């Protein structure tokens, strides 16, 4: 039975006799309920019997669980238990953990990711949205395919370290620009065959270059492995370990430190000053021989969006006890400036070129606002799968709007074997696009939008409600209307032949039944109950009828039944 039912049940006379006389023994079980279903389920966590907790439930377990009350008793003749004074431990409720997650953003992110997962029958996917200035995680979705083909939040893939593929090229770009060996306008000869021998190994491109000679900016935009490895070789051929120093400078050698236990540790290649070290450096420059988590990658891209300031991602805003804040969390700056300002500026130009002329050009063609980012496609070989199995990890990571970044987002999808669609621009960029579109429309402040253009509507309609609320809605939606409410508290709204809503004053008599038809239940209840009228309701929606006619004199203890539809 539910706890509410149990509270009633234990008040029964038989139950009150105690377990020895009544034979009633209650076994109490506590479980984590998820009122929002899959939304952030793995991140919020589970409290499980005989199993390890996960997510925030595990990290903040000591604060959440509170203290169980205890009492020392002495048994006397007849088995009666007498409490011993001074030996009580009062029970204490657990504290409340207030997260940074926005449930509406979470719904947008999870829905967009789920759509692509189902469409592509992918093995798993993850998506994270971070607030640029603060590092707050506003949404985090993790979907893994079950044996029956459905998807569930079974693991936190956002924290697992894997070979990132081309999204790591941002680190390579930053390193060579900061080193000073190349500029984004330098020409790089990549050839026309889609492969080239660079230093000590052969390097292949997923697709042939649009022309044999590209600028470094174009190499990044078109995700040329050959081009990026050439500039990395030019900068670090004699000192491969210097490239590793840059990776460490960008915090890619350590965990992000997010408030979730179980974050995977990154793995950097051994870059000694020998042939093996040079081979590993070239390989790492385009996303292999190195393992980082999607969250780490997101943190690096967020630093570029934040003009070089790297902030630590976090998931909890505050801890409260009985509604009173006992601890508040604020942004943590890991590095005030990870690169020179000119390097940050050039990196932004390169990421914007990805969406305007590079691998994501078709996805963001005619997009209403600017985005910046990078596609990534990694051929997976991780022990479970080999390269012959044709499994890929498709990624897109970036920020929006590009001119004044507010949110950074990463999407990672691991495909099924030999999937027809496996590129980051095919799988992950469309998810990013859908998320960016919806978040921009609902959350980005200061955006320039045109007033809503309504098609003239000849249909009749009638609404009624509290005048200030009505005007607030019209103002927010920029709906032009004719106002004849004359500062009256209640209004009726109807159409006229000019296709503009008319807000007309509604008269509410003092001692007679008001007309509440076309009102919401909230407004009808407020109006009637303030007149000491008892209200009964049937149905849902707007009020369409009332069983006491408007204008009827009100009796003491008057009751009115409202029909909603």
Q: Can you characterise this structure?
A:
This protein has 565 residues and is an alpha+beta fold. The chain folds into 2 domains: 103-443, Beta-lactamase; 462-564, no CATH class. It has 17 helices and 24 strands. The strands form 8 sheets. Strands 6-5-4-17-16-15 form a 6-stranded antiparallel beta sheet, with helices on both faces. Strand 1 (70-75) and strand 2 (81-89) form a beta hairpin. The longest helix is centred in the last third of the chain and has 20 residues, at 424-443. It is globular. The relative contact order is 0.09. Residues 448-452 have low confidence and may be disordered.
Helices, strands, pairings?
Layout: H1 3-9, H2 13-16, H3 19-22, H4 41-44, H5 55-59, H6 61-65, E1 70-75, E2 81-89, E3 96-99, H7 103-120, E4 124-131, E5 137-145, E6 151-152, H8 169-179, E7 187-189, E8 195-198, E9 201-204, E10 213-215, H9 216-221, H10 225-236, H11 240-249, H12 275-284, H13 294-305, E11 310-311, E12 316-321, E13 324-328, E14 333-335, H14 341-356, E15 372-379, E16 392-400, E17 407-414, H15 424-443, E18 462-466, H16 467-477, E19 482-484, E20 490-495, E21 501-505, H17 521-529, E22 534-539, E23 543-546, E24 559-564
Parallel strand pairs: 19-21, 22-24
Antiparallel strand pairs: 1-2, 3-12, 4-5, 4-17, 5-6, 7-10, 8-9, 11-14, 12-13, 15-16, 16-17, 18-20, 20-21, 23-24
Helix pairs in contact: 7-15, 8-10, 8-14, 10-12
